[in-house]
Amino acid sequence: MSRSAAPLSLLDPPAAPAARRAADGARRRTSASAVLRTVLEHGPVARSTIARLTGLSPASVTDHCARLDALGLIRETAAPRRAKGAGRPHVPVDLDADRFVVGGVHVAVPYTSVALLDLRGRVVAERRLGHDEGTEPDRVLANAARGLGALLSEAEGRLPLGVGVAAGGWVDRDSGTVVEHALLGWRDVAVRDAISERTGLPVQVDGHARALVNAERLFGRARGSRSMLHLFVGNVVDAAFATHDEVHHGPRSQAGAIAHLPLAGGTEPCECGQTGCLQAELSERTLCRRARERRIIRSANPVHVVRAAAEGDPAAARLLVERARMVGRAARLLLDVLNPETVVVTEVGVMSRQDCLTALREAVGRRDALVVPSSFPDSVLAVAGGSVALDVLYRDPLSVPAAPKRNSAEPARSSEESN
């Protein structure tokens, strides 16, 4: 037989079987992710409904549910749902939200938040660790690891799957490094290695704006949006953008750095030499300084400005509305470039007060985009850290180590009982 007449299988390069296995593995991960996401959104849900919603075959759904059950991520609920007519009753499946947690770390300028989140993104436990001894990276990360250890020691019966770490500034997801955080004075800090070494757990690291896009995508009111812009306005001001369930990172995860974009009407001098940069104009440091100048508060805590407004201080209310209006101008600037379907804003006034949300929307001025505050006003930083790890879990649930079997005498709890 001539070479030209040889069967194609004989001409395949040696790498072809490995490539096929890799492709099959990718398909299995994608399908398992679709099944787990459907259970998250619709559970308790019958396998037949999962097949209809995902487009997977019933046999494939049954196989994936068996795998996810063996991993301890889902479980059959106590009460089966009987199908119309004859046949076996449908036994719904739901997340097993009582077994696993992920650790969340968010490094902010004044403090670090450590938390435990369940598989639905709900905060199980949380602590704030002040930076009273400074923001030197080793000290901050060691304190965070100890704080997580303390929470886990108190979480009886909960198994940790991993840790997510979120921070502002330039964060390189792939290397797990905070490349630059000017307000903390951090540069090239190997966060993933430091936390993993101290906890013995797998660690994922990302910027907090991107982490909160994933939180909204999985657990928030913006779930199902085809494109989303998230604008984070704290001491750090940055943004993230996602389309079709994928957050844009760019080379070395540098996307979303908007601190020095000029804001029309801004008057605050920036350390870069310009006036009216987004971060200089909108940061919580600027808010608190202006509040002190107007004798609204004496502290450097933006929550105290919100509290003063809630207690009837008109100067505090005006200051928050002014800031919300400027945030709306910043959102409009980004919206005009990216044109997302949904805009989510994390900002203390917008999350707390209707007058601030109204001022924000008026400044945005676009009626073709849904503009909403963060879905997590009471736990936004804790959710940011944990969502870094939960995003990885929901994208590749088959990577979870098999869970120990439950005691057969342990009763299954319905979703209502576990909420």
Textual characterization of the structure:
The protein is an alpha/beta fold. The chain has three domains: 80 residues, Orthogonal Bundle (Arc Repressor Mutant, subunit A); 135 residues, 2-Layer Sandwich (Nucleotidyltransferase, domain 5), CATH 3.30.420; 154 residues, Nucleotidyltransferase, domain 5 (2-Layer Sandwich). It has 15 helices and 15 strands. The strands form four sheets. The chain has a five-stranded mixed β-sheet with strand order 5-4-3-6-10. Strand 11 and strand 12 form a beta hairpin. Helix 2 crosses helix 4. The protein is globular. It starts with 7 loop residues before the first helix and ends with a helix.
Short description:
By secondary structure, this protein is α/β, with parallel strands linked by helices. It is 42% helix and 19% strand.
Layout of SSEs?
Blueprint: H1 8-11, H2 16-42, H3 47-54, H4 58-70, E1 74-76, E2 93-95, E3 100-107, E4 111-117, E5 123-130, H5 137-154, E6 159-167, E7 170-172, E8 177-181, E9 186-190, H6 191-199, E10 203-207, H7 208-219, E11 227-233, E12 237-243, E13 246-247, H8 278-282, H9 284-293, H10 302-310, H11 314-338, E14 342-346, H12 348-352, H13 354-364, E15 370-373, H14 380-395, H15 415-418
Parallel strand pairs: 3-6, 6-10, 11-14, 14-15
Antiparallel strand pairs: 1-2, 3-4, 4-5, 7-8, 8-9, 11-12, 12-13
Helix pairs in contact: 2-3, 2-4, 3-4, 5-6, 7-14, 10-11, 11-13
Please tag this protein with its features.
single chain, 419 residues, alpha/beta, Arc Repressor Mutant, subunit A, Nucleotidyltransferase, domain 5, 3 domains, 5-stranded mixed sheet, 15 helices, 15 strands, 19% strand, disordered N terminus, disordered C terminus
